[in-house]
Amino acid sequence: MKKILTTAILCAGLFSFTACSDFLDENPKSQLTTVGYYTTEAQALANVNYLYRTGAIRQIASAPSAYVGSFASITGLLTGYFLNSYEGQEIVCKYSRELNRQQYTMQISGTMDGIWDACYKAINVSNAAIKSIPDIKMEEALSKKLIGEAKFFRAFNYFYLVKTFGAVPFYTEPYVTAENMELDRTGVETIYAQIETDLKEAADALPAAKFADNSHRITKYAAAMMLTSVYMQQGKYAEAVPYAKIVIDSPHSLATNDDLKMNSAFNKLRSTDDLDEVIYAQEYDNAVNTSDWFPTYAFNSSAVSVFGTYSIFERVYGPTDEFLNVYEKNDLRIQPNQFFHWEYTNPNTGATWSSKNAGCWYYYDEDALLSTGKGTKDWNVYRYAEALLDGAEAIAQSQGVTAEAAGYLAQVQARADMEGKTADQIASELQKLSKQAFIEACWTERLREFPLEYKIWDDCVRTGKFPVISKTEAGRIDYVNLVGAQNASGATFKETDLLWPISVNEMQRNPSLTQNPGYSAQ
């Protein structure tokens, strides 16, 4: 713990902000402590800007290596429905898919260190901002927004830690010395209570504007969307409903299909930034912050002969054929060049790539792959489609199958329907379902709508259910209890699989920590 929080103190003063076409720019400036670096408006803005590209968001929306994706991609491998083609080297991927991490705690401690360190750095910067900004001379409106953003990111990082590790050390005051940092683990109920408070206060303080219209800064709707997720992760469905509806009733909306091919909503989501559907995204451009290896994740290793811009291609998060059977045959999302693809011809050279295993078309970045070698497509963290699905499920869980819930689910299903059914027609059919069947329809739609956005494992843990996708009947999914079920690789889920181990290195630094059940402390 000592190393992490000491580093966090320094990181609070590492970055400054300059405008660059509304892009959150960061450049190294100093290594002052939080106390010395929260005296002016510029310093406060610099520290809050730092939160946009550190901590948990890097565990979700980064592509740090050609061989392994962000940590969020590794969690999806637990299901066995997604594979990393380089797992022989990236052993955390292999141990995750085989559900035997408990035997290799030391070997995966480096991965766990990365999550722990990054999240606590962001939390400490957030704590310092929340404490210090009220004493800095600036316009009240700006002070209110910066504190709201800091509370959002404190909640974001604690939420990620709790989902990953369970009970973790908890503090809301900034650390300015290396003393008294050996904290015990705090129960998740206490941490969730603070997360909820932070997000409610952030939602009240932040602008009621679309993400793209707010200079890509956190908005009321991003805070409400995250609070919806927080409530649903705890099974507090009645509490989730009003916050889902805040987002649903916002200026955000679903991207639409101009056609059912390259101008579909799904190709717009893949290729176009600043859509009204996007509630919160990690921002990328070709100068300040590129998307690193994301474009290469669209193919497998044989694509090196097709492109000259990248030297390595791997399926770091490749779907199995079994997973792809989650889609019914008339679902637009399973058609070639929507979310997935099997063949590609370079328009500049005529070189062709083909594979019997699906590539991830959602990651395809044309400019990066054909010319620049720099990925610029933003990574969508929260989309309006998720608000609709959360709203539909939360209402059904707490109130039953209402016309409102059916209408929300129908909007997502109608966009993917290739037979011309309207949302009203689909909603009418959905209202005939039993409560449990409707809830499972919401779960299934999440599998189909977010296959490459790393949400599958959180949904398994939240619901306590594992989706058994039929190998023979397209679109059929049966939900069974998660613990005791076999993943798609034939490994059996144990209670200890629901959390990750605390790093052995971290436990040696902080003797107050205890290890999660099933994992070694050494």
From TrEMBL:
It is found in: Cell outer membrane. Residues 1-21 form the signal peptide. The keyword DNA-binding does not apply. Pfam families: SusD-like_3, SusD_RagB. It comes from the Bacteria. The keyword Membrane applies. Residues 92-232 form the SusD-like N-terminal domain. PROSITE patterns: PROKAR_LIPOPROTEIN. Residues 366-519 form the RagB/SusD domain. Keywords: Cell outer membrane, Membrane, Signal. Belongs to the SusD family. This is RagB/SusD family nutrient uptake outer membrane protein.
